[in-house]
Amino acid sequence: MLQVQFLRDNKERVLEGLKKRQFKNLELVDEAISTDDERKKIQFELDSQLAEMNKIAKEIGILMKDGKKEEAESSKSKTAQYKESSKELETKLSNLESDLTNILYQIPNIPNALVKAGASADDNEIIYQSHDVEGLGEGAIPHWELAKKYNLIDFELGVKIAGAGFPVYLGKGARLQRALVQYFLDKNVDKGYMEVNPPHVVNEASGFGTGQLPDKEGQMYYINEDKLFLIPTAEVPVTNLYRDVLFQEKDLPIKNTAFSQCYRREAGSYGAHVRGLNRLHQFEKVEIVRIEKPENSYAVLEEMVEHIKEILTDLELPYRVLRLCGGDTGFASAMTYDFEVWSAAQEMWLEVSSVSNFETFQANRLKCRYKADGKSQLVHTLNGSAMALPRIMAALLENNQTSEGIRLPKKVAEYAKFDLIS
C-alpha cells in the first residue's frame, strides 16, 4: 500500500507510473488526498475539543475548590456538549480513516523507472536467453503423454479424487518431485537463506499484508467456517512472519526459504496452454523471501536473479529472463523478472519463476520497519520462486526424452537417485 503522503508529494510521478500499468482509476489518487485532507480537518477539530474539555475540567476543579458551585455546574454543561460533539467527530474520523484505507488498497504499486509501459505480456522485455531453442522434431510427445507412458503422473485419478488441476504423482514421478524440492531447498540454504516451514493457511490480515487481498480474492480458496485462506504461495505466510515487527538495523537482511503446497483457483483458465502440468490448482513450490534496507534492495533483486539462473543452469534447461512491462507487473510489485523455460515438445516458453521487489508497498501494509540512527522507516520486501515445480517437471520430461527413455540431467539424477526413466 502506498502512503498517502507519498501520493501527495509525488503526484505526477504516481500518475505517470499508474499510466505505465494501464491503470484506469487514476481519480483514486485525488480521492485519497482529499479524503486525507478531510481526515486531518476532523482530527484537528477533535483534538481542539479534547484540549478544551481538559482545560474546562481543570477549571471545574478550581471552581469547586473555591466554592463557586454554580459556575462549576455551568462549565460541566459545556463539557457535556463537547462530549457529545466529540463522539460525532470520532465517528466521522473513524469512517474517513476506513474510507482512506479502502481507497489506498485499490491503488497498485508504482513501477520502477526501468519498467517500461505496456499492456500485456507481449510488451515484456527479454533481458537474457541462455540458448537458441528448437523443437525436438517428429516423434516428440508432450509431458502429459510421457507421464502416462511411464506411469509418472495420473491426471484422471486426480480428477476422480478432487477435480481437474489436482494431479496424482506416482512412483518415479513422486520421487522426482521430492528430489527437486530437496535440491531447491539445499541450493537456497547454501546461499544463506534460513529454511522455515510455515502454515499453509492464512487469515485475512495476512492476505492484506502481502497484497493478495483484495486484489486476488477471487483466485484464492477460502475456508468459510474458519475465515482462513489456502495460501497461493509461501510468500504470504513467510513475509507475514514480520508483520508488526520493528527491526534494529543490525538484524537486516532477513533471508528465508520455504517449501509449500500452493493453491490457486485460476478461475477462467481454459485451453491447450493449460493442459497437463501447465496450470494447476494445487502445486509444489519453493520460495525465497528477503527483508532489506531500501538502499540495498535493487542490488539484492539482481542477486536473486543470478541465483535463479544458477538453478536453471544446473537443471540444464534452456531459459530466458524477462523484465515485465507495467501492464503485466503484479499489483504489489515495483519490478518483476520472470523466468521461462523452453518446453521442447510443446515448442513454447513456460513461466517457472518470478522475482520481485515490492519496495515499501508490502511493508507499509505489514507495518514492518527497522530502526537506524534513532529513526524508524519501512523496509523493502522481495520474493521469488526458487522454484515452482510443475512446469520445471514438464520441461525436464519433454526436453530429455530419448529413444531409451527420459535421461535426467546430472544434478537432478544425484538427488533423485536414478538417471533414467524407462
Measured by DSSP, the beta-strand proportion falls in 15-25%
Provide the structure class: alpha+beta
CA(first)-CA(last) distance: 51 Å
Query: How do the strands line up in the largest sheet?
Result: 1-11-12-13-16-10-9-4
Number of strands: 18
Main β-sheet, in a few words?
A: 8 strands, mixed
Mean pLDDT: 94
Per DSSP, the total helix count is 13
The stretches of 5 or more residues where confidence is low (pLDDT under 50) are none
> What is the overall silhouette?
elongated
Estimate percent helicity: 40-55%
- CA radius of gyration is 27 Å
In short:
The chain is of the alpha+beta class and 422 residues long. The protein has 13 helices and 18 strands.
Task: Write a structural description.
This protein is α+β, with helices and mostly antiparallel strands. Helices cover 43% and strands 21% of the residues. It has an eight-stranded mixed sheet with strand order 1-11-12-13-16-10-9-4. Helix 3 runs antiparallel to helix 4 and helix 5 crosses helix 12. The two termini are 51 Å apart. The relative contact order is 0.14.
Write the layout of secondary structure elements.
Layout (H helix, E strand, L loop, with lengths): L3 H6 L1 H10 L6 H39 L3 H37 L19 E5 L13 H7 L3 E2 H7 L6 E2 L1 H20 L3 E2 L5 E2 L1 H7 L11 E2 L4 E3 L4 H6 L5 E3 L5 E10 L18 E11 L4 H18 L4 E5 L11 E9 L4 E10 L3 H6 L2 E4 L2 E4 L1 E9 H11 L6 E2 L2 H7 L3 E2 L1
Parallel strand pairs: 4-9, 8-14
Antiparallel strand pairs: 1-11, 2-3, 5-7, 6-7, 9-10, 10-16, 11-12, 12-13, 13-16, 14-15, 17-18
